[in-house]
Each structure stands twice: as structure tokens, then as C-alpha cells.
Queue: 4 jobs
Job 1
Amino acid sequence: MNYSVIAYSTACDVEDFVASCVDVPKFLGFCRECHNYGNNWMCPPFDFDPLDIWRSYEKIKLFGLRMTPAREGGEGKSAAERAKEIISKEKRRLIGELLEEEKKIPGSLSFFAGSCELCPVCAKVTNEPCRRPAMARHSIESLGADVSLAMKRYLGLDILWIKDDRLPEYLTLVAALLLPR
């Protein structure tokens, strides 16, 4: 499927980000409704307070992707299937870039877009330790952040949704890199 990508990034103080975009009780409530809740090591419930992670860092660098699908192509696939194809490909690429950034900045920590999908079935389901702890990361939303608000406030992007089996004008992903004090 053909599509174009525009990358956005910005940095701000974690304190400002938390004050404006993080509401742990609200977003953990949404997480409870997800099939990954309790079934993915990177998803809630956690044995720690997500705010402790946020407060351990000074800056946050947000990375947003705006992926604009070509209007033609994707015949025989639903809009959801086409969106997943694009998002999965770009998410894998973004994860690689974030892990490289972590290597360059000691003490930094990345948060990926959406739930961890590194393994076909998370080891948590069978009560085993994470199989890929060197690569697995939490998502911004799993630690209580409002992704829609963060994208709008810091990157100037709205999240658009599929309607009537039609792709929106563009798809979005957001990830972050927390920078040490």
C-alpha cells in the first residue's frame, strides 16, 4: 500500500507534560477495558506508580508520524486492515529509531506507540518473564498520558478515525523519549 509519512518532533519539560497531559486514574480506567490489561508486561496493572517514572526525568521528546494513505490501492482489504498494515510498518521503524536514540543518550527511556507487540503472545499470559526485556517498552498511554491531547498540544496533530470503512485523511502514531536530569 502506498502512503507518505511526515515526521514531527518537539521537546518540553516533563513537569509541564505531566501537568497538561497525564491523568493516571482516567487512562488506567481505559486500559482496564483492553484485552491487554493484565496480559502484557508493558500494560497495566503495574506494581509501581506511573508518576514515579514520569518524575524521574527532566525532558520529554515527542515523536509524531502523520501517515497519509494513497487513495487508490488496498483493494479487497477493509480500512482497518489497511490502517493496521501502515501503522504496523511505521511502528516497527519508529521503535528501531527510538532504541537507537536511547543508545546515544545514556539514562534515556523511550515509550512506544500503543501496546507492546514484540512477541506474538506475551509471556505474561503464561506467567513467564518478558522474553525481550531489552526491547520492550511501555506506551505513553499505559502510563496515564492522553495521547490525543499530547498530539494536539505539542505536535499540532489531531487523531482521525476510520468512518464507514473509509480511511481518514491521515493516520497518526506518537512515541516519546524521556531525557534524564
Note: The longest strand covers residues 3-13.
Job 2
Amino acid sequence: MSKDKIKEIEGKIADIKSRWPAHSVPPSMWQQLEELEDELEKAKKAQKRG
């Protein structure tokens, strides 16, 4: 995966975190965040493998 893809995923994570409520976070937001963090981790590993 490219650096652009990593930047895109990081942007999506930042967007979710900016909308994160102080209390009672909806399960869908948790799921979205976890999926994006997993995708980001995979992208970074793929980039290292090169």
C-alpha cells in the first residue's frame, strides 16, 4: 500500500475521533475505528515489506 493510502486512513481515523462523543459512544463508531486502525496497521506493514 502507498503512503497516500496510509494518509487517507489516518485522515478517516482523525475524523472519527473529532466526532467522538464524551459519553455513550455508539457501537458503530467503535467498530469503524477498530476497522480503520486494523487497516492502517496492515498498510504500514505492507509498506515496510515494500
Note: The longest helix spans residues 27-49.
Job 3
Amino acid sequence: MAHNLASTTLAAAVRVHFGLSQAELGRYLGVSAGQVAHAEAGRRRLPALLTLRLTRLARLLPPPEGTGPPAFVPEVLPTGPPIFAPVVLVSEPLPVPGPLAVGPLRQRQRQCARHLVLLRRDWHALAALATRRDHRRWVLAVLAGGLVPHPADVAAAAPAEQAHQRRWLAELAAAVPAPAARRPEPRTALTLLLLRLAATEAEAAALARLLAGTQRTGAE
């Protein structure tokens, strides 16, 4: 169960790999977030019991540091152009009943541009939330399957230690980012947002075509 990292960097490696805050790792070790920070900076050594707990997590790192599964790889989510883009609106001539006023078209074009900025901002926030949720669920699965008593680690099988691990895993599960009230889970919300992006981009493209045609007509 040997690892290749110094104890001062081991805590940081474990935190990064499992996406833990210093407070979350500290609750598992039994120390404060500040003490974890001191240990990571090399200003303070962890007691033997806490080092043993840290080593149990380090065993779940991917090789060569540990014997755990490969690191979490986030799913690549589509960013644009939206996969549902209604191209008919931007490729076919629009039926125009007569001469059009440029002012309202330009005003609506500006509104669409502002709306697209907000929609893309929301998309990035939702995508980040979905990735955090996926990562935490992956972490919980790895920890639940990996934090089992090891033959060379008799102390891990102690009832008190097992209860401590169960409480900590329950806390991590409770901290999984939740979607906002009355909002679907992130992946459904992302799909709905892509539809809104597609519709707004199609409208903006149609407005650009209308403005171009109106300006050509006015110049003739």
C-alpha cells in the first residue's frame, strides 16, 4: 500500500483527486480545515492515527500513487452551436408582407444579443453544476467501495472507525450540489436551455437577414 508522495503533498493530492475541500478532508481526518492547510504546507505533521486515515484514502488514488481506478473524466457537454438549431429559419427566405421599419428590427436584434449572453452564462453555470454532481457521485462510489478494512490495516475494521467512515460518507453525499428549487435536474435543464439557445440564435439570424434585405431595398 505504499505511495510515492511525501505526506505534505499527499493530503493535497487526495483532496484534488476526490474534489474535497480542506474542511471535508479535515472531518474525515478529525482535524480542522486550518490544520489540513498547515499539513499541506508542511508546517505541521499529522499524528500517526490521522496519517493512517490519510493513507487509506491515498490507497484509492490511481497508479502510481495508489491502486485505485483512473481519475474522473468529466463528460464533454455540447457548447454550441446548439444541436437542435432550427436551420430552416435561417436558410429559407422569410415571407415578408411589405416594407419593414428598421428601428424595431434592430431593437429586437439587440434584445436577442443580450438574451444570448444571459443564456450562455446560465449554460456554463449549469454545466459546471452537472460536472460537480457527476464527480461527487463518482467519488462516493469509489470511496464506498474502497474504504473497506485492509488485511494490513487492522484498525480500519474497528467498529468506531467504520462508524466514523459511514458518517463522513453520509456528509459527503448530503453535500452533493442540488438543483435550484423548481428547476429540473441539471442535464434536463441543460437540454431545455439548449433549445432556448437554438430558438434565440435562429431568431437573431433571421433578424440579420431581414435587416440586410431591408437595407438593400432602401439603397436601391
Note: The chain has eight helices and no strands.
Job 4
Amino acid sequence: MAKIMLAWEAGSFLGHEALVTASAVMLHHAGHEVVVCPPADVPPNEAAQREGIAWQPVSRAPGHFAPSVPARWRSRATALWAFGMHSSAHTADRFHAWTALLHRERPDVAVLQAAPYAQLAVRHAGVPSLEFGIGFDVPPRVSPFPAFRHGGAFDLNVALALERTMVENVRRVCPVPEGTPLHALVSGDRRLVVSAAELDHYGGHEDSTRHFCGPLPLLDWGSCEVVWKATRPRVLAYVQASAIDPAEFLKAAGQLQGDVVVICADADGLVRTLAEEYGVRLFAPPISVRELLPSADLVICHGGGMIVEALVRGRRCLALPIHHEQAMTASRLAGLRLAGHLGPRQATHYAGAMRRLLADRALVGRLGEFEKRHRHMATRSVESFVAAVASLVAGARPGPEGAHWQRGGSSGGH
């Protein structure tokens, strides 16, 4: 078997960590040697420790200030700009940090989730890579990257100029052939979308490199098991207190007179007091939701991977998007009439939205049909993921076309 490096860089909530850890567990069970390389200061979680998975954080990134993007629209390119690719110095720092880690760990294959600088380094080092994530994490490989929202404000020339600036910043760090587009630098050799094709955020942009394998199995964090009580409705919410009106949200949820489980990383003492007052069970992540999500009557989250996991299980969902990618998800789901969505601070609408979704029998029918179409994904997603990595392992060639350390390359930067 092979040594597999898994990594993520972007994102501050637990969705990225859960996705990478679940993938690491699957590959570990498939017999591979696995090392997870998270952002600095992210300690190994209980699931990784339970499986004996190596945990090697990449060095800390220096702070950076990204100048505003000269456009109303948002795309993968504008996200990369805000993530530091506007700066050749920041790009160089991250590239050299990942290059040093690669030469220390010497993986056969890299499996990357929202990790653009790691992708630059593994491509330069000659390490085969698998890029994976939910829809907006794996955009079509086109120039320029398509817009998330505000497509009417999309200016092709501005978009191309922005991407050329970032390519030039990369060129100052490592060799890049003339005419190379941005997508060729930050995209993996194999690309898996852990979602359903009909939920794709980028409809109309054909790209045969994007394979939709369905959501991966829910991670068993192992730290806190919660089960439903007998009362209905059962409401599962995974939210950030700082992004919503927590008092009104807890009040609205409590008025449903059911069993409400809220997972919230940034709940303070006041939020905990309000949860107790309104009869809501409040937990700090991580907790395992494998026993909760499949039988929830309503799932509320900001619109990341959890909403896809809920939909393929036929669960009603309410999205409260807090950034452009999540808003794109919510808009797509609303267009398909598969979920409700609100602005996260539309507090006066919380209660009404929850009650409408719980009472909508037509929605239950549509979700049932959606679940039937995608039921196979629960098992096939694991098979597809492991097979994609195996194909990269089989194609990895030592010698002249292999990784730098297989041909005596340097371990430092330029």
C-alpha cells in the first residue's frame, strides 16, 4: 500500500476537518499509511487518535491583508485572492512551508480539500493529487472560474486580469509555463465532488474532470453520543451563534415543543442560559450526529456539507448561509424546491420558516423522490473515493517523472 497525505487549509468551522478526517479513516481502513496535515494549532481529534492516524500540522501562516477585489461578483478566483494569493510574499511563504512538509513526509499521493497552496507544492514536487469537496470546493476547470453569484456583474476581462495577477505571483515562486491558467495550478489530477450532480452550483459549465460520488459517510467523532428523545418534532441545528440572532433562534426552536439539539462552537454563557430556558439541548462540537441526522424532522445549518448529507437521507432542511458559497447552495436548493433558506439574521422569520417546512407535505414527497434517486450514494461514495486514490497510487511512477525526492531534488525553496 501507499503513504497518503491528506490536508485542508481554508475554512474555520469543523466541516473541513470532519471531511478530511472521515477520508483519512476510510483510506486507513483500506490499508494505506495515512498522515493528516491540518492548519497550525489544530490538535488531533478523537476520531483520528482512535484510529492511530498520524497528525502533522503545517507551519503557521503569517497574517496578511487582502486588498478588496475590484468586482461585485465572487468566484473561486476571488476566494483565492482573499486567501492570500494576491501577495507573492504570502504565496511564497505557504509554498515553501508545504514543500518542506512534503520532503519530510514523502507521500506517494496527496488528497486535498480546500488546500490551494498545498496543491501548488504537490504539483511542483510531482506528487499525484486528488482534489475533493462539496460543489463549490471543486469548481469547473475553466478560465476564468465561473461566478458564485451576481453573474450579471461578471466582467470577463476583470476576471481574467485578476487570475493572471495570481498566476504571476505563483511564477515568482516556482516555474510556471507561459500561458498556464490559474485553474491548472490549483486543481488536482483527480477531482471528486462529494455531492449529487443535480445540486451542482455550476450548472451550464461542463467539465468532465469533476466526478460526483455523493456525500461520504458521517464521521463518528467519538467524543459525545447524543440520541433523540421521544418527543417530536426532532430538530437538529448546527450553527454559529455569532452569525445568527441566538436568542430569537433558540426561542423559535423551543416553541416547536419537540426535541431540539443545537450544536454550536461559539456559544457563551448567555446562549447556554437561553437554551436551558427554552428547553433546547445545546452542545459544543464535535459530537457525533450519525444517530441524529437520519431521523431528524428538520435539519438547520449554514449550507455546507451537512445539508447535502441531510438531503440524500430525505430530511427537511433550512439553510442560513453566511458566505457566498453557502448562499449559492441555498439558492440552488430553493430553485429545486428541496429546502428553505433565510438570511442568518432574519430573526423575525425563524419561527415561521421552521413551522412551514415541518408542515410542508409536498416537500416531503419531493425529498422522498430525491432520496430514492441517490440512495446508492451511501455505499458507492466510499468505493469511488478509495478507487480514485488507488488509481493515483497505481499511476505514480518513480524515476524521472516521479516526485522530487525520488529523483534527488532539493528539499528547500527557490
Note: The chain has a mean pLDDT of 89.
